[in-house]
Amino acid sequence: MGIIGWIILGLLAGAIAKILLPGRDPGGLIGTTLIGIAGSFIGGWLSAKFLHRSVTHHFFDAATWAAAIGGSLVLLIGYRILFGNSRD
Q1: Which has fewest Cβ within 10 Å: 4, 38, 40, 56?
Q2: Angle at 76 between CA 45 and CA 47, to 5 degrees
Q3: Whole-angstrom distance, CA of residue 39 vs CA of residue 76
């Protein structure tokens, strides 16, 4: 799976993470989208590095999606903790 595939997966993972973790985000739609893309990269890297589960081969693999969504959720939660009340 190439860089474009990871970006598309990140967009979808960010949307799924937003659905799983509703509420107001400090960055809005663009911030959540960028967090989704970054989360998919970080989740895929962590999965390959520490779990020895390569996620670079198949777009529709459950491990690939779990890593991307998990990475997006972790980054979204961290982002909310750091910048949570900036849109009040």
Answers
A1: 4
A2: 20
A3: 8
Alpha carbon distance 4, 76 (integer Å):
22
CA 67 vs. chain centroid, Å, equals 8
- As a whole number, mean pLDDT of residues 5-28 equals 79
The pLDDT value recorded for residue 3 is 75
d(CA 24, CA 21): 10
Is residue 62 scored above 80 in pLDDT?
no
The angle at the Cα of 78, spanning 73 to 81, to the nearest 5 degrees, equals: 125
Q: How far is CA 62 from CA 43, 55, 67, 68, 79, in A?
A: 13, 9, 9, 10, 25
With 80 as the cut, is the pLDDT of residue 13 above it?
Answer: yes
Q: Give the pair of three-digit tokens for residue 84.
A: 């949570």
Count Cα neighbours of 55 within 13 Å in the Cβ-side half-sphere: 26
